[in-house]
């Protein structure tokens, strides 16, 4: 089994051709494959067809997560999962998430064509709405599956996209409102492995080929609602205004100032406002309502708390100064959710490290923490989990120019398959008991 | 003719009942009657029916402006216009614009039922898209009619609302893409009178009942486009970000700071950002593009220039600091348009003052400048123009709680009719020649 090698050319061909076909941004290398959009639905339909042609049994759960399971020899074992996501940001790239699912498919193809028999079943998983770009709430469906996510099933089903479409309706319309329980206790895994691009500059800067991911940094999101008073832009004196957008701009500036004052990564944190919505949109009206979302991330939960505290302390100063200037605007945190720091399982970390070192040697492999959230962060709460990173050119991601070389994509796929096989071998020996 | 009195109760009844019927915001005193919306179309259809029942000939021009003309005795005279608008802000009130049109209708009703004969024809005018709330560009259609507006006919027809609907299509769908030339040289007026609520606090604070408007302050709008670079909110260090929303927030703060530093009104100016649009809307993506509109107003064109210069000087400092922080964001002014200061005609001002003093006595009347833009600002460029202000409670406008008492509404309607009749008398005597 250790001799099994994936077909790197086939992996890269499939990655590129399916990206071109479903969700490519015209005249750009980028992708817009929002969760449960028509492009995502067609990519999902194709994926299920491919997996079933390899003899896998496919099931879709209540959140639209796809599980394609290749049987193993042991009747008492749950599948070893190889999961990631196929949805993208509105202007994302071809590798974030997509590579992990395509590599899992390539692993299944390799096992199938070589007639390999594993001890545990092996499953490909496509997690729904990982980006949270269409339905607010990143890593939403793996969060539901783990029972530890930001919101339970019913709340996620009720989440609406910017056009007001509820997620449950989007699932039903796409044909992905499945009946399998979205619950790790009912539809479980022995372990979860995920290949992903790094989305940061560390591997490239250090000249490394593979990152053995030991965990995911902590993250927290705050939805902030600023309220003021509508008024005429020409007749309302500056001292009698309660301008929600002016106050929101000062608060967003404070978020940016706080993050810039935080120590540089990897020690410090980052904070971003990527979503802003003004209730009104008229050049002659003073805005009375603005909503924005703050994204705070740092290496551990303490650092997240520390940066968050700095942000809200700065908010207090902004609001005091606004009051002094005659403004009666107010703000409230409408919703807080997050992803506490994650620690991956030593068995999975060891399997990934072993597979990576076998492939490229120890000098091109190092352990690292993920700065981005991943479905694996949620799976790690309930089943042994590990991740493999391959380099991102320039560290760029969530951008059409996100790029990982074909060689690194193929390498990642090979390490994914071998990490799963190493883990499976320990299961077959009984070193790792049934979960 | 000086004995003619409008029916104030009928004016107030019609004002309230039509507002309740077409465009009322549920459970609110406010209005959302966006230009050429279904509510606006129904209000227009009703208005034309009312005017035709009074024996007026109605015509609709290429911008949807409605002219309802009651004939006069002199064949060589163009109509004396009584114009305003029936569209509102998305969360506006029942008086801004609507009062002026309803008072004009009440004046026509009064002339009709008393069988009054005027020298000049008298016209009611409903100007299209005065608010610029649906199709960007306030006082759009009166601007086209005057030939001095921000944009000519074809450009206005091509203007799109936030749903991408072109104004020409909206006009056609509502049945208001008329064939009459939208051009004062082809469809002219002898003069233009407009009754409007003050939208500011001056009359109320001074205990006055009528403002004789002598002109409109200068205004300028700037559409600003900020560009940056998309990136992942978790993996991109703060020093490597070009965050368009962070920069835009700093620029909007600078707009607010500049206006707060300007002298208090009436000497100083005001500046507002009422429109902001972020290209992307994902909590995990650093925004790469943001557009916002700055609205600058001050008592004259020099004061507008001075405040604008201060704003853009502050922008230079913001951009320098952003570069020092590692950001490569940039901004450009994508479009600049405006309304230079307007001066109304002495004959019209005198007619308004005379009518107001007759009604309430000199101690309750004063001259003042308008701080808001009005269709009269454009008509004043090409025909003699005057305006009447009545008090706004608390100076509040562009807000559902905008309010003017029934007594002040009726008073305004009476002054409008009598100002028109005074002006008409000077025409009949030849003191004012044909335009």
How would you sum up this structure, described in words?
Two copies of one chain form a homodimer. With 435 residues, chain A is an alpha/beta fold. The first copy, chain A, has two domains: 8-216 and 341-428, Zn peptidases (Aminopeptidase), CATH 3.40.630.10; 218-339, Alpha-Beta Plaits, CATH 3.30.70. Chain A has twelve helices and 15 strands. In chain A, the strands form three sheets. In chain A, strands 1, 2, 3, 4, 5, 6, 13, 14 and 15 form a nine-stranded mixed β-sheet that branches. In chain A, strands 9-11-7-12 form a four-stranded antiparallel β-sheet. In chain A, strand 3 (80-84), helix 3 and strand 4 form a beta-alpha-beta unit. In chain A, helix 8 (244-261) runs antiparallel to helix 9. The longest helix of chain A has 24 residues, at 301-324. Chains A and B meet through strand 8, helix 8, strand 9, strand 10 and strand 11 of A and strand 8, helix 8, strand 9, strand 10 and strand 11 of B.
């Amino acid at each position: 089994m250790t001799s099994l090698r994936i077909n790197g050319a086939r992996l890269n061909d499939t990655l590129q051709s399916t990206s071109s076909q479903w969700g490519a941004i015209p005249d750009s290398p980028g992708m817009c494959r929002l969760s449960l959009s028509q492009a995502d639905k067609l990519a999902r339909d194709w994926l299920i067809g491919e997996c079933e042609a390899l003899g896998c049994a496919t099931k879709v759960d209540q959140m639209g997560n796809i599980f394609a399971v290749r049987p193993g020899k042991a009747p008492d074992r749950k599948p070893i999962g190889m999961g990631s996501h196929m949805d993208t940001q509105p202007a994302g790239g071809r590798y974030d998430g997509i590579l992990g699912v395509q590599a899992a498919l390539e692993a299944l193809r390799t096992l199938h064509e070589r007639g390999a028999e594993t001890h545990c079943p092996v499953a490909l998983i496509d997690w729904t709405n990982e980006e949270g770009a269409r339905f607010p709430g990143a890593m939403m469906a793996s969060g539901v599956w783990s029972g530890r996510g930001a919101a339970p099933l019913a709340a996620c089903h009720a989440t609406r996209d910017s056009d007001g479409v509820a997620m449950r309706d989007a699932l039903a319309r796409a044909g992905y409102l499945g009946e399998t329980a979205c619950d790790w206790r009912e539809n479980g895994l022995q372990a979860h492995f995920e290949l992903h691009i790094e989305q940061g500059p560390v591997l490239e800067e250090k000249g490394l080929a593979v990152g053995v991911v030991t965990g995911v940094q902590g993250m927290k999101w705050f939805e902030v609602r600023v309220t003021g008073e509508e008024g005429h832009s020409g007749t309302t004196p500056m001292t009698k205004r309660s301008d929600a957008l002016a106050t929101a701009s000062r608060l967003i500036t404070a978020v940016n100032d706080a993050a810039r004052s935080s120590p540089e990564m990897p020690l410090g944190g980052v904070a971003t406002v990527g979503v802003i919505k003004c209730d009104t949109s008229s050049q002659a009206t003073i805005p009375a309502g603005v909503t924005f979302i703050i994204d705070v991330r740092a290496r551990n939960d303490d650092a997240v708390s520390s940066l968050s505290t700095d942000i809200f302390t700065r908010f207090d100063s902004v609001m005091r100064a606004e009051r002094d200037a005659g403004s009666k605007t107010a703000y409230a945190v409408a919703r807080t959710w997050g992803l506490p720091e994650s620690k991956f399982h030593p068995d999975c970390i060891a399997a990934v490290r072993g597979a990576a070192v076998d492939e490229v040697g120890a000098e091109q492999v190092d352990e690292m923490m993920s700065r981005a959230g991943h479905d694996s962060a949620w799976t790690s709460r309930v089943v042994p989990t590990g991740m493999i990173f391959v380099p991102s050119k320039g560290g760029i991601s969530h951008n059409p120019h996100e790029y990982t070389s074909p060689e690194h994509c193929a390498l990642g796929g090979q390490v994914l398959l071998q990490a799963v096989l190493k883990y499976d071998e320990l299961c077959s020996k009984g070193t790792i008991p049934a979960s």
